[in-house]
Specification:
The protein is mainly alpha-helical. About 85% of the residues lie in helices and about 0% in strands. Helix 1 (about 1-55) packs antiparallel against helix 3 (about 75-100). It is elongated.
Length: about 230
């Protein structure tokens, strides 16, 4: 009797294990198929968006205004296409999670769907800041008569970029503390200001050395009479 009970339990456990294994394999296969479809559609839509941006000549327009290098090596087209692909993949991840009903996958899908709008907003804020900073500094560099215009323009660009990062950080990384960036920026700003002041003082001193020497020679007798 005990032997029969053991065999029944063993058979039941084996059946449950095989059933769970097959269910897991089927769920994984469905997940892979759906994600492959999602990546295929994402690539198709990415190519469509890229072609559209090429047709409206967005990169050429930015180059004409001197801001095509504002995104530190990336182009506006590549960023837009990457965000679109990511959005499509996240959508299909949610579809896969609803179909296979795997708790962990459902949780990841919900978190991704909740984070994606914030990510896109943060990227847009950052891009606008970089674009504005590059445009302003390019206009500043054309003012050749302004002393120390190149260091000053770099300082302005860093300032605008930092403001953009501080504004975008809560959207890009909701758990991050933007106060750390503010503090770091103030330290960097103080250092750059100090260095710029010292450089300006040295440059002015060197530039006026010859002028002071000429004036002293011309009025040597008057200066000697004072002493």
């Amino acid at each position: 009797m005990a032997y029969e009970m053991i065999m029944d339990k063993l058979q039941l456990n084996t059946t449950m294990f095989i059933s769970n294994l097959l269910e897991g394999v089927l769920a994984f296969a469905v997940l892979v198929v759906i994600m492959l479809i999602g990546m295929f559609i994402a690539n198709i839509l990415g190519m469509v968006l890229k072609r559209f941006l090429q047709e409206i000549k967005i990169e050429k327009f930015m180059a004409q205004h001197g801001v095509d290098d504002a995104f530190v090596g990336f182009s506006l087209t590549s960023i837009a296409v990457s965000l679109l692909k990511l959005w499509v993949v996240v959508i299909f991840l949610g579809i896969a999670a609803d179909i296979v009903s795997v708790p962990m996958l459902v949780m990841v899908s919900m978190q991704a769907n909740g984070y994606l709008p914030s990510l896109i907003q943060g990227v847009i804020v950052l891009l606008i800041g970089l674009l504005f900073g590059d445009y302003i500094t390019d206009r500043m560099k054309t003012a050749k008569k302004v002393p120390f215009i190149n260091p000053l323009s770099i300082l302005v660009e860093v300032f605008i970029a930092y403001i953009a990062i501080v504004m975008a950080l809560p959207l890009l990384l909701p758990a991050a503390d933007p106060g750390l960036l503010v503090t770091a920026f103030l330290v960097v700003l103080a250092g750059l200001t100090f260095a710029l002041s010292i450089g300006a003082a040295i440059a002015i001193g060197l530039g006026m050395k010859d002028t002071v020497s000429d004036v002293a020679k011309k009025h040597k007798d008057k200066i000697n009479s004072l002493f």
